[in-house]
Amino acid sequence: MEPLSILIALHVLAALVWVGGLFFLLLIVQPTAGAMPAGERLPLFAAVLGRFLLWVWLAVIVLLISGYIMIFLLGGMAAVPVHVHIMQGLGWVMFLLFGHLFFSPWRRLRTALAAGALKDAGRELARIRMLAGIVLVLGLLVVVIAAGGRYGWF
């Protein structure tokens, strides 16, 4: 198996973990847990997010390393097709939004829960859901671009 095939597989798996996890979180867990009392729902989301965000950090690392090695192996940025440039740009927007989510509302959510401030924790969870929704839409767009780019869609 050639190195490019392994890198593509790792890249796709990392994207699947991140984007698929967001899909599950926002479209399955959140509506299901929405009927729970805040005192139960917020700690549940904090526990779920705590585990998920660690996986996202791993996915981000794999995406960056595998993506840039693939670009290097293909001859650098000047040699790759336009859809790769679009994916890279959207990927960086996703990474920056994730970093903000992790270092700002996620930290405030944990602090609020530790202090028993459920209203503040709920407000931070709403911010997390909004940011996660934006990242999900961007991630799904990147998947479409990745799938269609090599066929001249872009």
Structural features:
86% helix, 154 residues, mainly alpha, single chain, 0% strand, 4 helices
SSE topology:
Elements: H1 3-33, H2 38-73, H3 82-115, H4 118-149
Helix pairs in contact: 1-2, 1-4, 2-3, 2-4, 3-4
Task: Give structural notes.
With about 150 residues, the chain is mainly alpha-helical. The protein has one domain. The protein is about 85% helix and about 0% strand. The protein contains 4 helices and no strands. Helix 2 packs parallel to helix 4. It is elongated. The two termini are about 30 Å apart. The mean pLDDT is about 95.
Short description:
The chain has about 150 residues and is an all-alpha fold. Helix content is about 85%, strand content about 0%. The chain has helices spanning about 5-35, 40-75, 80-115, 120-150.
Label the overall shape.
elongated
* Biggest sheet record: none
| The number of domains | 1
The portion of residues forming beta strands comes to: under 5%
The number of helical runs is 4
Mean pLDDT: 96
Radius of gyration: 18 Å
Helical residues, percent: over 70%
Cα separation of the termini: 29 Å
The run of helices and strands is HHHH
The helix-and-strand class reads mainly alpha
